[in-house]
Each structure stands twice: as structure tokens, then as C-alpha cells.
Amino acid sequence: MNIIEERGNQIVEEFSVFDDWLEKYNYLIEMGKDMPLIDSKYKIKDNLITGCQSNVWLHPEFKNGKVYFYADSDAVITKGIINMLIRALSDATPDEIINADLGFIDEIGLSEHLSPTRSNGLVSMIKQMKLYAMVFKTKT
Amino acid sequence: MNIIEERGNQIVEEFSVFDDWLEKYNYLIEMGKDMPLIDSKYKIKDNLITGCQSNVWLHPEFKNGKVYFYADSDAVITKGIINMLIRALSDATPDEIINADLGFIDEIGLSEHLSPTRSNGLVSMIKQMKLYAMVFKTKT
Amino acid sequence: MNNEILKIREQFPILNRMVYGKPFAYLDNAATTQKPTKVVKRVSDYYEWENSNVHRGAHFLSQEATVAFEKARTSVSQFINSSNSSEIIFTKGTTESINLVANSYGNKFLKKDDEILITRMEHHSNIVPWQMLCSRTGAKLKVSPIDFSGEMIMREFEKLLNTKTKIVAITHVSNSLGTINPIKEVIEKAHDAGAVVLIDGAQAVSNLKVDVQELDCDFYCFSGHKMYAPMGIGALYGKENLLDKMDPWQGGGEMIAQVTFDKTTYNEIPFKFEAGTPNVSGALGFEAAIHFLSNIGYDFIVNHKDDLLNYGHNRLAEIAGLKFHGTAKRKTGLISFNIEGVHPYDAAVLLDKLGVAIRTGHLCAQPTVDFYNVPGFIRASFGVYNTREEIDLLCDAIEKVKEILS
Amino acid sequence: MNNEILKIREQFPILNRMVYGKPFAYLDNAATTQKPTKVVKRVSDYYEWENSNVHRGAHFLSQEATVAFEKARTSVSQFINSSNSSEIIFTKGTTESINLVANSYGNKFLKKDDEILITRMEHHSNIVPWQMLCSRTGAKLKVSPIDFSGEMIMREFEKLLNTKTKIVAITHVSNSLGTINPIKEVIEKAHDAGAVVLIDGAQAVSNLKVDVQELDCDFYCFSGHKMYAPMGIGALYGKENLLDKMDPWQGGGEMIAQVTFDKTTYNEIPFKFEAGTPNVSGALGFEAAIHFLSNIGYDFIVNHKDDLLNYGHNRLAEIAGLKFHGTAKRKTGLISFNIEGVHPYDAAVLLDKLGVAIRTGHLCAQPTVDFYNVPGFIRASFGVYNTREEIDLLCDAIEKVKEILS
Ligand SMILES: Cc1ncc(COP(=O)(O)O)c(C=O)c1O
Ligand SMILES: Cc1ncc(COP(=O)(O)O)c(C=O)c1O
Question: Considering only CA atoms, which of C66, C97, C68 is closest in space to residue C237?
């Protein structure tokens, strides 16, 4: 199994202890608050993924064959989801990222946030993460 | 009672002997065929009342204080209705024409043809007849 | 809940829907209203028993559909008291109505350095068509400022009006702030300066009795779907003498008098502006919605909305940390605000989960929201079927959101 | 009447209506088709239980409506086999689709002395928008002739094609003659000459399986109401690379990415072209109509229409004094004709009274009718629910008309 899917399963397990949406969201919000800080120099227009409702900044780095993502958002629920995505996708090889199946988001029961019709920029973010991985891949 | 309305009543009476639409239309078609001929020099563009479906030419004359209408159409049912209108409206003073209540058309049961949505130019024709009467009136 | 409202609510089955297993409060009426059963039934009756194309056929059904369609036009005309039903053009909605004027009037009568004057509180639909017109003609877009209560600043507006001002386009009621603009005064001043005036009535028609003759506006635009009618239908009112001298915008179907390859002549108004098969069922649903509104009556509507507005403002003001946007003296039943320290997106997600349907974000009025220097508004907007109880639900939900996010 | 047709007819209550106290035959399907109960129900279900504005709100209903609306877009995309659902733009109908291209593509890419090539058998909606584009840009409209059987004359078409030809706009199926044009060949030749090709599919989609990738057309336009869907909805298909480089036509609502008074940036396709609140219920009804058609299947539809066409032609040919217009080798279920010595208006009035709903006049294709040098056509056009018995009714009625008018 792809390392990203393994991490995804781990996250699904963490969420599985919650019975209702409120506990899930509370956990997500905690994840948002716990999110590693990003250097403000990366919160620039070029790194901005515009969604209608909340801003997401995404900055990638490529070190020793692995991709690292740093991100931020002005909305805390969005941050929670980003943190989750970063936990899953960061620190992985371009190939692992490109091939990752992100079904775990569905399993957690947060897929509504990833609908392309929910204009929160998360779909664009995942697209962007995979795109960065492809770019880094061509550099190797 | 206005002379035009009197004539209208007369026409209503003629139609009242018919029981069904077919007889009514047969009579109308006869009226169309019996319509007095109009000199072809009047069948010119300037006299054309354009309806979507059949052409109507209308030519007015003003003699001794009375208005006379001459008309033609390429469709025979339209001609029947025109003939009926001319029987009622022609040979009358401008005032009589301007003030005439044409309710008799309703009474005959042909009002569908006079609906502005039935694009046969008849509504425009009646408008045009009253307009001519107004113009002639200003000349007297 | 009072009896009258209960009787109104019975006509809206969707209000009984459960969302996430709970009853929900629909407070997103400025986006679109729900439809009473009579409107829905008018549409399905039409399709099951009367459907036909209009204006085109001499056959019975077509004739009947045409009469019904034109009767609907007359109802719309009476609804806003236009002097003549040929001044009513059926469109898809407000947006198309404004685009029609920007093209048919704008392209013909505006030139380089002419000015179009709008306000800071316009919906995108009353901004972008004018920006596009400016880029086609070289005209300039001028923006009349607002103050923090969400009101126009009349003396600034007057300063911006001048002999170059050819069009004043202004919303009757703001969709982001709820402000009812003093459009009668605006129209008078604009006319004195020689400009024609287009009123964006999208948010007004469900809230106020509109009389275009009394207002003396040149164009008035509105959408069916925001006044309890189906989607895909709306209207443009225009003064006959203006419509007559405008060129058609779209070509095709019944908007012509005669077509040859050498020369095509156009039909009369309103048909000149209605290219293609019209949305007959939409027009009939529109008419049914007008009946729904007149049966209730604007006295009742205004009273009830005022009650919800006041009750809402008072109840929400009790919650700590709420910042209101739009506190004009004359307002419709619409409240925009932010919760201190809470991103509107977070609020929206949680309020939704708690069974409250409100709208957040730029509300298609980005320059207005930017003016208040926030990333978005939270907007609760009331329909004629809403209740104080639903406002209580909103308030409880906001308290809960604050708790979750604290 | 065969069983299959009986089962189809059961879905159309209107076919049981009495007109002037008699059963009637609806043979005006090229003007608009009737709607099956499932389509009507999809619309009313939406309004009674799901209605919300789309794309704009984060709340449950809005989210659900958005998903349903975009699913309808995907269904339309699959219906004509476009490679990507973002190539489908929802419009009011064919007329608006053509006007959109004439403006968004035409204004940007056409200039003085460029040429637009159409045929002699176009509907006004595929003539007038191009005439208007010509008068805006100085381009020239060229018309490819037809022969008396109602077919294109391919070598004349080829002669008219040249390096100045920028747009070829041609109907897939003629609404006045029933001709199915060899559009695949037309598209190939036009592409060789460097032109883009717009296909008017208004009369095609209910009669033929359309595959835009196989055809390789650049634009394909059609209306819902002519394929058993509601009024007020239609589609424009455009190749992604073309749509991407076109400017938006109408401004407002959700077609923007960002609005400031200095600079407005536009959204991606398809949203760039969908200004204002879309007709969600129309789109869902459109999708239901697509299901209705796929359930029946085009094999059945084509067979049945061919049967009605052949039976109709044979039966009508037995009547003395009928002159047919449009006898192309490949035709849909549509027969146009005149009765010798009878004005089509007289025929229409009497056929209507006799319970036959057909259409007469210029059929919004005045240049085509003029070509045959008659004041109008009488047109019977068949839907999937029509029967041989109804054609018999038509024939009897024509005999009767001849008798009345003799
Ligand atoms: C061939 C053709 N093109 C275009 C149209 C216009 O379609 P609509 O009126 O739905 O816009 C029609 C129907 O009237 C048609 O038959
Ligand atoms: C003030 C205002 N103007 C214009 C519009 C656009 O209306 P529609 O989307 O129905 O065209 C809206 C609604 O979205 C509005 O609130």
C-alpha cells in the first residue's frame, strides 16, 4: 500500500471514534488550530489558491527526492482539512503523491467539502498538490 | 344606434341561422368569394397590411362626407371577414366609424380571428380603418 | 407562530424538509425564494394540458397558449403598473434584462467619455455589464460612494452627476445590505441631468409595491425566482419611446417582421426583443406568483418583514461579538453581519450543520463587501413564510458556532 | 396502434385533450414537442422539495441543487458525447446559443470582408444573428443554394468556401423541409478551408443520435423544448479550446472570478458564459427528457419516424392537388406541402377546426419558403407518440378542406 493511503487510513481511524458530526468537526477544528505555522513570506499572491469563500496559500518544497507542503488558510475548518491533507501527502515522493488514492476523505465523511461545487478551493488544492508533484518529478 | 352597429346586427342575424361552425365558415367563404373586386392598381405595397399569414390590401376613399373601403386578400376566409367588415363600416361618416362598437364580430363567434395573437392582420385592418376615418375627419 | 403565516407555510412543502435529520430554517431568500404549490401547479398544468409554441401557429393549442402568455405579460405589466403591456419584455431574469439594456441602448447611444453612474452597493449583475459596455464604447464607469450604515451619500451622487452622465444604474434594494434606496429622488436628479435611469429591482419586487409610472424610471429589471416564481423567467420594463428606438439585441425566431438575405426588418415591441421560443411555462408561473403576492398583499408583507427585521436585529444584537453591516433607516428583511474572530466560511459550514440555511461570502457584491473590509458577510434574508421562531433558531445556532469555534 | 406507442402515449396526458369537442392530432412537433409526465414531475419535485440557488451557498440545499444541476450538465454532455462537461453551456435555447457564438466568437474573430456561410434552408435564428454580426463587423453573409428536392448543392457550397470564410453555420435538419444535411462532409470541407463550423441542431436531437466528437463540429446548438424537455432551457456545445479563448457575452452573477471597479476577471468555462441565476429546474427537466429518449432508444425513434414519414408521404400522395416541398433522400418525420388553389392560411384555419394541429406560414424560414414561390407551407411534423391513425385523420381533414373550399 502507498504510504499516503496508509496515513489516510490512520486518519480515518482517528475519526472513527467519533459518533456525530459535532465531535468530528471539533476534531477538525483542533487540527486546524494545531496546524504548523507557515512563514508569512509564503503567504503571497502567487501561492494563493482562490476559492470563493476562504483563501488557501500553498507552498511546496522538494528535498532529497521528497515533496514537502506548507499551507495556510484564513478559515479554521479549511485549515483543519488542509492539515489533514498535508499529514497525508507531505513528506512523500512525487510518484507516491501522483498515484495516491484519496478515498480516505470520503470515508471520514467530509467529502462534501471536496465537492467541486463547494467553492472552498480544496479541490483546486489537491489538484495543485498533484501538479507540483508532477513538476518535481520531471526535475528528478 | 350607430348605423354600423345596425348593420352588424343584421350580419349577426344572418349568421344566427347556422348551427355549427362548418355552416358558418361556408357562409364566410361565400362572402369571401362574393367580395367586390378591387382595382389591381390599389393592390400595392403602400396599401398592404402585413399579417404573418395572409396579405390584406386596404384602400379608402372619401366622398361627400362618407368613407368607402375597398380591400382584398389572398386567403378566402380572410376575404370573407373583410367583406363583412366592409359591409359594416364602409359608406359611413368618419364619426360613425370612429365610434362604432364592433361587438357583433364576437357575437357571430368569429372573435378568434380578431385576437391580436392570431397573426392574420385583421386587428391591424380594423385599426387602420379607424385611423383613416380619423384622418378624413380632420379634413372636413 | 401566527395563523396567517401558518396558512402561507402550508403552501411550501419544502419548508417541512429535514436536513441532516433535523428541521431546518430557510433564511436564504435573497438568493432565491421557495415556490408556493400554486405556482408549481400552474407550470405542471400547463405542460400536462396546454403546452404549445406561441405566436406561430393558427391551431387551437397555440392560440390558447398565446393568449395565456400575453395575459401573463399583462399581469406583469399591472404588477408594476406600467402603462402598456408592450413595455414588458420577458427575459431569463434581472441579469439578462440589464445586459439587454447595456447592449441595445448602450451600444447605440453611448460613446467615448460618456459616463455611466452606479453605486458602491451594486450586485455584479449591475456592474459587469456596464464595465463591458465601457470597454466596447470607451465610456467611463463612475461609482457613487456609500456610508458605513449602507446608505447612498446623496450629495456625492449629485456631484458625480453631470452632462456626460448618460445612464444611471442603481439597485432599488441592496442584496448585501438590505438598504432601500431613495430611487425616486435619484431618478428625478438623474433626469434633470439628462440621464436615463435603470433600476435593478431584483430584491425589491418581493418586498415593496413597485409603480414604475410613479417612479418615472426608464428601465426596471427583475427576476421571477426571487419573488416566488419559477427560475428562467424575468422581466425588463422599458418606456415605450425608449424601447422603440433601441435596436434588437438577439436575432432569431419571432423578433422579425420579414427576413430576406438582403434586408431583415424587425417586429414591434415587445417582440423585437424576444428572439427564440419564449419560456411560456415560466411566464405562467410568474403570473401565478404575482397572484400569490397580491392575495397576501403588500401591507401584510411589509409589516411581517419589518417585524422579522426588528425582531432579528434585537435578538442578534443580544449576542456578543456580532458586527452588523447595513443599518440603513429604510431596510427590507435582510440582515448581514460578521461574528468577531470567526471566518464567515467557518460560520457557514457550522450553521448549515445546525440546520440554518444562510448565505455567506461576497454575495455577488464584492465591492460592497470589500468596503467593509471583511472576507465576506453572513447574510440572513427573510421570505414571507419565515417566522420569529426561525430567527430564534438562527440565534441559538450562532451561539453554538461561537462555542464550537472558541 | 402498436403497443409500444400506446405505452409512450400514456405518458402524455395532453394527447387525450379534446379540441372543439373532438379528439385532436398534434402534428406540430417541430414547433415544440409535448412533455412526458416524468419530465413534468422532475420539475415539480424539484420545486416542492429541492429548490435552491446554485454555486453560491454553502448550505445543504444549495449544495444538493448544485450537484443535481452539474449532473444534468454531465447528462447533456453524454447525450451528444462531448468529451468534457465543461464544454456544455446552458442557454435558453438554440436561438440564444447561436447569438452567444455570433457575439462571443464573432465579435472577437471576425473582421471586415470575412465571410459567413449559411444555406438557403436556415431558420431565422440561424440567419439574423449572422446578419447582425455582419453589420457590426463588416463581414459578408454568403448563402449556399439548395435544389427543389430541398437538398444542399454540394459543389455550390464548395465554390463558396474560401480562405475568407471564417464561420460556416448550417442546420443539421431543416425545420421547413425535413432534410438531414450531410454535415459531416460539410464540417470536413469547412475545416479544410479554415472555417469553424456551427451546427443548428434544434430539429436534429429528437430525431437522430448526435455525436459531436465524431462530427468534429466546433459548436452545436439545441433547445430542450423540441426534445420533450421544458421551455426556457437549451444548450450550446463548444470545443474547449474555442470556448476558452472567447470573451464572455453577458456579464453578472457567477460568471466572474473577481470584481473590482478597476478590473474584473472572468470565471472558467462553462461558468464564464452563464451569467445570472441559471434555470435549474429547466436543466433537471432537460436531463429527464434525455432519459426519456434513451429509454426509448434512437433505433426505435428513427424506425418509427421513418414509418410515419413513408406512410404519410404515400397517403398524402393519394390526394389530388398536393404539392410537396422537401423530398430529400434523407429526411426526418416532417412533411411540408401546399394544396393547389388553397391559401395555406385557409387550410390552417379549417384543419384546426377539424382537429388537426399543424403549422402553416413561413415557418420562421422565410427565404426557404420564398424559394418555392408560395405564400407559405403547410407542415405536419411527427413526434415519437404520433400514429398512422393520426396521419389518416390529417388526410381525411385535407379532403374535407378541399371540399369546403372548392
Ligand atoms: C432549425 C431551427 N433552428 C432554430 C430554432 C430556434 O429554436 P428556439 O426557438 O428554441 O430558440 C428552431 C425552432 O424554432 C429550429 O427549428
Ligand atoms: C440586487 C440584485 N441584482 C441582480 C441580481 C441577479 O439576478 P438573477 O441572477 O436572477 O439574474 C440579484 C440576484 O442574484 C440581485 O440580488
Answer: C97
Indicate the class that CATH gives domain C3-30+297-405.
alpha beta
CA of C255 to the centre of ligand 1 (A): 13
Question: Is residue C251 within 6 Å of ligand 1 at its C-beta?
Answer: no
Per-residue pLDDT reduced to its tens digit, A92-118: 999 999 998 888 888 887 766 665 555
Domain boundaries along the sequence of chain C: 3-30+297-405, 40-294
CB C323 within 8 A of CB C340: yes
The cell numbers describing D311, all together, are: 406512410
Nearest ligand by distance to the CA of C207: 2
Q: Give the integer Cα–Cα distance in Å for C96 and B47.
A: 39
Residue type, C122: E
CA distance to B21, C258, D131, per residue, from C263 (Å): 41, 8, 9
Contact D345 B26 (CB under 8 A): no
Domains identified in chain B and CATH numbers? 3-137 (3.90.1010.10)
Find, among D293, D277, D209, the residue nearest to D39 by Cα: D293
Q: Cα separation of D385 and C361, whole Å? A: 48
Output the CA torsion D274→D278→D282→D286 (10° steps). Answer: 30
Among the partner residues D24, D230, D364, nearest to C253 by beta-carbon distance: D364
Distance CA(D284)–CA(D74), nearest Å, equals: 11
Check pLDDT > 60 for residue B55: yes
Task: Provide the grid cell at D4.
Answer: 409500444
Chain length of chain D? 406
In this complex, is the C-beta atom of A50 within 8 Å of any C-beta atom belonging to chain D? yes
The answer, yes or no, to whether any atom of ligand 2 lies below 6 A from the CB of C95, is yes
Task: Read off the pLDDT of residues C88-130 as tens digits, 9 standing for 90 and up.
Answer: 999 999 999 999 999 999 999 999 999 999 999 999 999 999 9
C324 - beta bridge partners? Answer: C337
Going from the Cα of D392 to the center of ligand 1, the distance in angstroms, rounded, reads 28
**Confidence bin at B46 (pLDDT 50/70/90):** confident
Q: Measure the CA–CA gap between C64 and D20, rounded to whole angstroms.
A: 12
Position C400 scores a pLDDT of 97
Residue B53 to residues A122, C55, C65, C274, D265, Cα–Cα distance (Å): 59, 11, 18, 20, 48
Contact (Cβ atoms closer than 8 angstroms) between residue B95 and residue B138: no
The CATH architecture to which C40-294 belongs is 3-Layer(aba) Sandwich (3.40)
Q: Is D69 helix (H, G, I), strand (E, B) or coil?
A: helix
Tell me the average pLDDT across C53-66: 86
Cβ neighbour number for residue A38 with a 10 Å cutoff = 17
A52 is catalytic: yes
What is the distance in angstroms between the Cα of C312 and the nearest Cα belonging to chain D?
20
* DSSP 8-state symbol, B115: S
Q: Pick the range with the lowest mean pLDDT from A72-86, C169-183, C186-200, D143-157.
A: A72-86
Backbone angles phi, psi at B61, to 5 degrees: -135, 155
Rounded Cα–Cα distance for residues B130 and D194 (Å): 57
pTM of the full structure: 0.96
Which among D377, D396, D383, D280 has a CA at the least distance from the CA of D336? D377
ipTM over 0.90: yes
Between the CA atoms of C155, C160, C161 and C165, what dihedral angle is there, to the nearest 10 degrees?
Answer: -160
Q: What are the φ/ψ torsions at residue C196 (nearest 5 degrees)?
A: -90, 155
| Yes or no, beta carbons of C275 and D128 under 8 Å apart | yes
Instruction: Give φ, ψ of D170 to 5 degrees.
Output: -145, 145
Of A53, A117, A119, the CB nearest to D67: A117
Dihedral pair phi/psi, residue D202, rounded to 5°: -50, -45
D357-392: pLDDT as tens digits: 999 999 999 999 999 999 999 999 999 999 999 999
Residue C112: CB atoms within 10 A of its CB come to 9
Q: Where are the beta strands (DSSP E) in D7-104?
A: 18-19, 22-23, 25-26, 88-91
